[in-house]
Write a structure and sequence with these properties.
The structure holds two protein chains of two kinds. Chain A is mainly α. Chain A folds into three domains: 6-59; 62-202, no CATH class; 217-434, MetI-like (MetI-like fold, Orthogonal Bundle). Helix content of chain A is 63%, strand content 5%. In chain A, helix 10 (217-248) packs parallel to helix 13 and helix 14 (320-328) runs antiparallel to helix 15. The model of chain A has no long low-confidence stretch (mean pLDDT 87). Chain B is α/β, with parallel strands linked by helices. Chain B has two domains: 24-113 and 284-341, 3-Layer(aba) Sandwich (D-Maltodextrin-Binding Protein, domain 2), CATH 3.40.190.10; 114-282, Periplasmic binding protein-like II (D-Maltodextrin-Binding Protein, domain 2, 3-Layer(aba) Sandwich). Helix content of chain B is 43%, strand content 19%. Chain B has helices at residues 2-21, 37-50, 64-71, 91-99, 130-137, 155-158, 177-194, 196-202, 207-214, 230-239, 249-254, 271-275, 300-308, 310-313, 318-322, 329-341; strands at 29-32, 58-60, 82-85, 105-120, 127-128, 140-143, 146-149, 169-172, 223-226, 244-248, 259-261, 263-264, 282-290. In chain B, helix 5 (130-137) packs across helix 7. The relative contact order of chain B is 0.18. Classes of the chains: A mainly alpha, B alpha/beta. At the A-B interface, helix 10 and strand 4 of A face helix 1, helix 2, strand 2 and helix 10 of B.
Chain lengths: 438, 345
Amino acid sequence: MTDVTLDSLPVATAPARRDIGIRKRYAAERRFRFYGLAAISVGLIFLAVMLVTIVGKGYTSFMQTSILLPITFDAKVIDPQNKRETDPSVLIKANYPNLARDALATRLGISKDDKPQIAALKGFVSDGVRVQLRDMVVADPSLIGQTRDVWVLAGANIDSAFKGQIDLDVAEGNRKVSDRQVGFIDKLRDEGVMEGKFNTGLFTYGASSRPETSGVGVAIIGSFYMMLIVLLLALPIGVAASIYLEEFAKKSRLTDIIEVNINNLAAVPSIVFGLLGLAIFLNFFGLPRSAPLVGGLVLALLVLPTIIIASRAALKAVPPSIREAALGVGASKQQAVFHHVLPLAMPGILTGTIIGMAHALGETAPLLLIGMVAFIVDVPHGVTDAATVLPVQIFLWSDLPEVGFQAKTSAAIIVLLAFLLIMNGAAILLRKRFERRW
Amino acid sequence: MKKLTLTASAAVLALAASAGYAAARDQIQVAGSSTVLPYAKIVAESFGETFTDFKTPVVESGGSGAGIKEFCKGVGENTIDIANSSRKMKEDELKSCVAAGVKDVEEIKIGYDGIVFATDIKGPDWALTPLDIYKGLAAEIVVDGKLVANPNTKWNQVNPALPDWDIAAYIPGEKHGTREVFEEKLLAAGCKEDGALDVIKAGGADDKAAHAKCVAVRKDGKAVDIDGDYTETLARIDSNKSGVGVFGLAFYENNADKLKVATVSGVTPSTETIASGEYPVSRPLFFYVKKAHLGVIPGLKEYVEFFLDDQMVGPESPLAEYGLVAAPDAERQQQRDDFAAGKTM
């Protein structure tokens, strides 16, 4: 201690100078709080605007306009030459949309000879009825000759008009729905046979050139397969690499270089991984184009650095006393790591993995080069079947001019956001539940 | 530890299984022009619905050039079967195809597409000529017999009949298939009409250099290259009500409630005027098939036949409804006969 005595302190001036300092510091603190609050509010406002526009545009897609029609499975339309006993392909190629059109004419009380009115029915019912009615008949050929009430999808333009998305003040020639069709819509609505139903098709259909029969079904399954591959590859490799680097490897120049490289890889633009995937997996190994397997391989490479960095941080956070205690009672180094350190680090590792996976779930650029940005209708049955993924489906739909697809784009964004929210929620839950503090 | 080995071995198994799968592709793969994409999508979807034995073809976009490049990578199951293109395959592209082993390429013309100029629907009527476009958008034009940087800033300086609007044109970017039609049918034609071609040639340029100078677009911000699709062009028109945009006929017809179409050389673009050749700015659309893949990839032959059927590309087909201009009857029959005979390029 220095030998300062009470007498030597500058008694008179000290309190005044301390007051000035406090006022300045308080002001600085108030300013800082204000800046922080302003930054957060700006962020929140942007988030709110984004969510409101997306939900505002997309919510209509969760309902799809349907019409209840008394469909007569007329043998004269389905099988005019009565050959279905000998040639079953007749049932597949029959003109099913005509059945729906005739049923609609009956419902509206239009005579079949009234050509202008019949012409206005074109596009009223979705062309998707071809598959819908065909599947019914193929499953049960005894339907032919009977009449059934069937809910069928309305055509895309009729659907938009029903939802009020078409401006009826525009001159008739310049809009996609004629005045006559608007009259039909009002009539069907008043009779209660036309209504918006929950759009299950959004989750089951694949891509389609018709907005009303397109959905994110293929994309959800494709995303699932791809995430499965990413998880199977990136988690074991990432965890193994980080355990080795953190617990076993001696610190040397080589490990330093590896560490720097891993950190750099985490910042490499994702399109570069796509080029790598094209060169190695498609051209060299000859794996199939557009397959979730290749997408998963590429994205696994993309998220590996993230997982390794997070896992190393989680391993580092386990206090040395745990390792030392284990080693002290006679455990081998491997036993110490796998029985004691790894279980304690697991919540951190899993959180890192889930965040990495969520990142991979939102990637589009690398998939462009390996053929996953494509129009794919059929549901994939394995990791090598052609498939697409959610963000790609959003990207593809956003390019299309039809009103129906613009709503679908926002709906797909909502679905993707929901998945990301669930994944990030799981990460938070894991952290909250299993995290240990020392 | 056990779990780790388990997952690792599962991954290895999945990889091994996939190597076996890759040997037998049963799905047609198509890539190429974004202009042909909507048509190919409609055909692919209907094909899948009609032929329940075959899988629905996978259709990628990415542009004519990129599609042909992918197509010309070679023959085999891990290369694509069909390349869509909004222009004819170039000589050197065909050469690179042959060099890579794609010796027999069948060319199939599916119909025509027209490019239209359109403005915001609330604006005045527009009547353009190739000369107007050249004088308004070329990098250099001839004034008093000399080649100078384009001095025009308003459309009515180009042609007094045009509105008093600042020049702002949204044209297809250089990698777009549409750009070539824009250059050939409008800029080059206007250049010739203006007499600028002769002036450039008199300056000592050879044919190729003169042509390149003719189709050079001004870079002072008055002509904006749009590298995305027509949706972006529409958004630009939406934010700048005195802008002029270039669209495909199909896209314009789908947005006829927002856009007003301009006549070119006095002809209003429509399916009729394009099919007859009266409307000057139109182009044929193609796709290319690998002959070596016919009979190997299940459904490929059926897909091409289905595409060429009048049900698909005829005057009253779903493609025509979407904006494709059907080729004349004789031309469509010729395409079918050529495919049946296996004619190659």
